[in-house]
Amino acid sequence: MGGMAMNEASTIWLDGALVPWHGAKVHVLSHGLHYGTGVLEGTRVFDTADGPAVFRLPEHLARLERSARMLRIGLPFSAAELAQATVELVRANGHRSCYLRHFAFLGYGSMGLDMRDSPTTTVIAGWEWPDHLGGRPLRLKTSSWRRNDPNSVPPAAKGTGPYLNSALARREATDAGYDEALLLAGDGSVSECSAENVFTVRGGVLRTPPASAGALEGITQDTVLTLARDLGVEVRVESLLRSDLYAADEVFVCGTAAGVVPVASLDDRELPSAEGDLTKRLAELYRAAVTGAEPRYAHWLTPVHSS
Question: How many CB atoms lie within 10 A of CB 164?
Answer without folding.
Answer: 12
